[in-house]
Design a protein that fits this description.
Layout (H helix, E strand, L loop, with lengths): L1 E4 L2 E5 L4 H14 L2 E4 L10 H14 L4 E8 L5 H9 L5 E4 L19 H9 L4 E3 L13 H16 L5 E3 L5 H8 L4 E5 L1 H5 L2 H5 L16 H12 L5 E3 L8 H4 L14 H11 L6 H13 L7 E7 L7 E4 L2 E4 L7 E4 L1
Parallel strand pairs: 2-3, 3-4, 4-5, 5-6, 6-7, 7-8, 8-9
Antiparallel strand pairs: 1-10, 10-13, 11-12
Bound molecules: N-carbamoyl-L-aspartate and zinc ion (ZN).
């Protein structure tokens, strides 16, 4: 048995329509706060789209505090952004490099053209959440994250010194060092990047359910992520990047990128900290560090979790006439009591 604050998930994809209802319900069980990503099929690039989406989600939401993001690109209108800011419609802006991941076809191909938007965010103290991958023809996908640090993130940091940045779902030791050694930047880490590596992903049969962007890296990188997460270091916190795709689209010739982890993510994180005797840092990783970075108040009531050994995990959740594939790693299950 252990007691922790209700966790926050600072990076989640709720999707749209009936799928969002399904996914939000699962999120409500586990999280006091969720930061919702804007990469819908028709991305949330303006007030009209954001308002519509926001209203639908908030109507369905039962218990979590839902924080919204806007999909930033060079077609965003400054007037619109100001309107949304004044009306508190979004909490953070999200930057996707063009074609880096699912629904990033409206992303940004040249970050230098984004300067006026970065100034706007910096001036109003609005966080910028970044999918940190440099995408270029014929480049090795395993190098994308490192290249982004060198070619793009360094430039942003140098030119927008007070901009509050979240480097999302980091996967490399290079990102760990980068975040540690720069000001005003923190990073989220997912469950699957903490628990998997290239060996578990593709060392045996290929596991499409683990295919995501950024792609899962080798154990050297995995160890660096585990070390920094377990240490409770204040610049690193949990963002599941839980990204549901239908099973028929995952076990398919063109498998889409995204791991759906919401159902068991907290159980997996608790077990990881438990076996490493670091449960005293769970609140930091799951609640405090993220809330501190974003300047958010949090519910500091403690909730009890118990450990069930050799639990029978549900591999798939039925959704309409298809399924979602639940990500799970450990044999033991931690559940709220
Ligand atoms: C995410 C998705 O499916 O929306 N996919 C992923 O592989 N992580 C998008 C993202 O966060 O990159
Ligand atoms: Zn994501």
């Amino acid at each position: 048995m252990l007691k922790i604050f209700k966790p926050c998930d600072f990076h989640v994809h709720l999707r749209e329509g009936s799928l969002s209802q399904f996914v939000l319900k699962e999120n409500n069980k586990h999280f006091q706060k969720i930061l919702v990503m804007p990469n819908l099929e028709n991305p949330l690039t303006n007030a009209e789209l954001l308002l519509k989406y926001r209203n639908k989600i908030l109507k369905m939401n039962k218990s979590s505090e839902v924080l919204f993001t806007i999909y930033l690109n060079n077609n965003c209108s400054m007037r619109d952004l100001n309107y949304m800011r004044k009306n508190n419609l979004f909490f953070a802006a999200k930057l996707y490099p063009l074609n880096a991941t699912t629904n990033s076809g409206s992303g940004v191909s040249d970050i230098k053209k984004m300067a006026k938007y970065f100034s706007f965010l910096e001036g109003h103290n609005i966080p910028l959440c970044i999918h940190g991958e440099h995408v270029h023809e014929n480049d090795d996908p395993y190098e994308r994250e490192k290249k982004f640090l060198d070619l793009e993130l360094s430039w942003i940091i140098k030119n927008f010194k007070s901009l509050k940045i979240t480097l999302e779902h980091i996967t490399t030791k290079d990102s760990v060092s980068f975040v540690k050694s720069n000001k005003n930047i923190s990073a989220t880490i997912t469950t699957h990047h903490l628990l998997e590596n290239t060996h578990t992903f593709l060392g045996g049969n290929l596991r499409p359910e683990l295919f995501c962007k950024p792609i899962i890296k080798s154990s050297i990188h995995q160890e660096a992520l585990q070390k920094v997460a377990l240490s409770g270091s204040s610049k690193f916190f949990f963002g599941s990047d839980s990204a549901p795709h239908l099973k028929s689209r995952k076990y398919a010739p063109a498998c889409c990128a995204g791991v759906y982890s919401t159902k068991y993510s907290i159980s997996n994180i608790i077990e990881l900290f438990w076996i490493n005797k670091k449960t005293s840092n769970l609140n930091k990783f799951l609640t405090l560090n993220g809330c501190k970075h974003y300047g958010l108040k949090y519910d500091n009531k403690s909730y009890k979790y118990k450990r069930i050994k050799n639990f029978k995990f549900q591999k798939y959740s039925k959704f309409q006439n298809d399924h979602l594939i639940n990500y799970n790693y450990f044999k033991n299950f931690w559940t709220e009591v």
